[in-house]
What does this fold into?
Amino acid sequence: GAGSLRSGRFVPEWRSDSGSSQQGRRDVSKRVLIAVMTGVVCMLARPPGSQAAVLTVLPPAHRFELDSTTGVHYTVLADSGKSANLYFHQRSWLSDNSVVLYTGPTSAQRLMGYIQATGERIVIGNITGATAAARRNSVFGMRDRKLVEIALLITISNDPRSVPSRVEATERTIRTLTFTSQVNANYDDTFLSVYENNESITPKRYSVYRISVSNGEMIEVCRASSSISHLQWSRGPSNLLMYSGNDDARLWVVNPAEGVPRNVYVQVPSMGEWVTHESWWVNDQILWCGAPWPAGYELDPQRGEYHHVNVLDLHSGISRIVAAGSWLPAQENSERWKRNFHHACGDEDGRWIVADNFSGVLTLTEGKTTRTRLFTVGHRTYGGGEHSHPSFDRLGKQVVFVTNRFGEPRVCVARIPDDWRAESAPIITSVEPAAEPPQRPGDLPFSIPALFPSEPNPFNPATLIRFSVPRTERVVLNIYAINGQLVCTLVDATRQQGEHSARWEGRDSSGRLVGAGVYLCRLVTPSGTATERIVVVR
It folds into this structure.
């Protein structure tokens, strides 16, 4: 494809659409049609003023491994060269789950993509601070100091070792900044967040910014009293921002509409309590690792710390342990950290929490029951190698992490066994129907949102979806395919307390009729979520 590597840096050969002939436009349409026919998910419409390039696609170089301790299968994405996954609170998979993003193999600034269907690797370019978009096949990140969006259109090859798949990238600059930052996108790709730690001026500036994806408008949300890290949007339409502060006051949350940061978990420094590696989870819950000193710490000659995986419910203020670390006196840290946790990340429907430790052990904890399973082991030696930084795919079926067991750090993807999933249950229902769907608003205490059975169901050509909200608040009502892909948004607006309805005529966001089958209707509000099945017949 067009583009080359010069001194280790990917330099795409951009071509503009601004002067395209009618034949050129027909060729683009033909390529899009071929992509649809070969089962590839579509990209964003090309924004005005953007540029397009055909990216370099490298042949498969993966290897398959089996964890002999747990029986879990995992794939090493490339058999040579140092690589790293995206940070654990970033989205690593494109919205349709087709590609997992990572960096390497020669430079930490070289963003790559692994096509799961073929094992091929996409060279996206020198992009830092990257994250996948929430609802479209795009990547947000920074090219030098330019905040960019790169939309990807992938045409899968039937024989990738002979004819590579084709990947077209459309890049546009959202805004140019005076600093660099990790980038994070909110739940519907309307806003990005970035932070500035400027210690070269007096007074020092530690600022959180919100940037509009559509027009690049940037506002300063708030200023912090110490350096900022781990800035990230909440998972739902509450659109809250969390960032990490200093060690004594670590967990901060700010509503951009208010601009007032709040320390949502008060640590007790006198007990040695350390809060670290925070990430948002479902229903405005925050996962973090840490623990106060254990009983008997003062008498322990090693005086080693230990860590639980904890979850903080932002609405109730209750924090609880979901995966307990353990402590035994007089143990070296290399032994203690075989049983304690350092990073934790939850999936998008609340079924799982994955956690790692300094000894290269990964565990899976069920969100509802807090049962913890040993997932995969042997990926790091205490005191050496890269952290695993595990995170989930968009369906909660796979985990991406880094292993050190083959020499240089390399990115892996492990599949959660089907029988493990069958024995667990999500907190937010994405596929399974509610056990007892409410029939009328009076069937539930009016403190949570409710979805009522649509009428008719099954339906053709249209159905009426009724729902209620406990207070005046923002409401998002989406239709998803059974595989989790967004079909259309019926409501994205503020609704008053009470019962409301929306009509769905069995069409996607482009107005095209969807095929017969099962679809999911999901109601999302700051008060909670609800999901119902809808069946389309043709």
Notes: The first helix runs from residue 22 to 37. The first strand starts at residue 4 and ends at 6.
